[in-house]
């Protein structure tokens, strides 16, 4: 007799993810989209994520960069974790302004994927850049 494993559909998993979880009352509620080989999301930060007057906290900016990269791999069926994250803050990221977050694969070597990401203003000005080495734990979830 075969035992059935009760596994939730993927859309029901991780509903409390800080970045994309629909049920997380204090989360970012990011909605990701593919644009060719790039993963994107739009975001407007509320005043609760402010650091200094009118400027988004750097930890939230870092989270946006990390999540766009990891989320891209998750959408492709990979269970993965960030092994290393580097962030370069180029300009202050404003609160209450539409932002575009983008992530893409730079290269792959074995179970490690090198990725890049940016946060930019509507006019294309990049406020932060991220790179990450992400370890693949499982393929095709």
From TrEMBL:
GO biological process: fatty acid metabolic process
UniProt-recorded Gene Ontology molecular function terms: hydrolase activity
Domain of life assignment: Bacteria
Protein name: Acyl-coenzyme A thioesterase THEM4
Entry membrane topology: Peripheral membrane protein
UniProt key word Lyase: no
Pfam families attached to this UniProt entry: 4HBT
Alphabetically ordered keywords of this record: Apoptosis, Cell membrane, Cell projection, Cytoplasm, Fatty acid metabolism, Hydrolase, Lipid metabolism, Membrane, Transit peptide
Record-annotated Thioesterase domain positions: 54-126
Documented EC number(s): 3.1.2.2
Origin organism lineage: Bacteria, Bacillati, Bacillota, Negativicutes, Selenomonadales
Subcellular locations according to the entry: Cell projection, Ruffle membrane; Cytoplasm; Membrane
Main localization category: membrane
GO cellular component: a single term: membrane
Reaction(s) catalysed by this chain's protein: decanoyl-CoA + H2O = decanoate + CoA + H(+); (9Z)-octadecenoyl-CoA + H2O = (9Z)-octadecenoate + CoA + H(+); hexadecanoyl-CoA + H2O = hexadecanoate + CoA + H(+); dodecanoyl-CoA + H2O = dodecanoate + CoA + H(+)
